[in-house]
Amino acid sequence: MQTTRAQTPSRASGRELTPLLAGAATAVGGFGALLALTGSDSPLRAPLVLFFLLAAPAAGIALALRGLDPFARVPTALAGSVVLNMLVAQGMLATHRWSARGGVVAVGVISALILLPVLLRRRRAAKGQDG
């Protein structure tokens, strides 16, 4: 009797890791936002909040710039994220409403507003292909 083995690739391709990395980044960023909103004194608060403040807007901007080459999209999205954070901070300072929690909420809402049209466009395109 002869047994055969299904051959599996020795290492995972980048396409297989992308959803896993996106999920992990979402969890880390969400946990950072949660730590900021609850006022936790955890030593992880600062790095995780910083990750959220950079990654949330960068993700929305990167998805909106899907026509660019990936190597151009990453620095462009990170630069846009820094600019968005600076604009939120400047607006809060100008109105004398500075708050770390408020900044996290404002960046989260603006990031969701950047991401929403992209998701709606994808949904509309998927419906057009199905029907």
Counting DSSP E segments of at least 2 residues, the number of strands comes to 0
Characterize the largest beta sheet: strand count, sense, and whether it forms a barrel.
none
Rounded to the nearest angstrom, the distance between the terminal CA atoms is: 50 Å
Low-confidence stretches: none
Overall residue-averaged pLDDT value: 86
What's the SSE pattern?
HHHH
Q: DSSP strand (E) fraction? A: under 5%
Radius of gyration: 19 Å
Q: Give the number of helices.
A: 4
Structural class: mainly alpha
The geometry reads as globular
Helix proportion range: over 70%
In words, what does this structure look like?
The protein is mostly helical. Helices cover 77% and strands 0% of the residues. The protein has helices at 14-38, 45-64, 70-94, 100-130. It starts with 13 loop residues before the first helix and ends with a helix. The mean pLDDT is 86.
Compact description:
This protein is an all-alpha fold and 131 residues long.
Outline the secondary-structure elements.
Layout: H1 14-38, H2 45-64, H3 70-94, H4 100-130
What key phrases describe this protein's structure?
131 residues, mainly alpha, globular
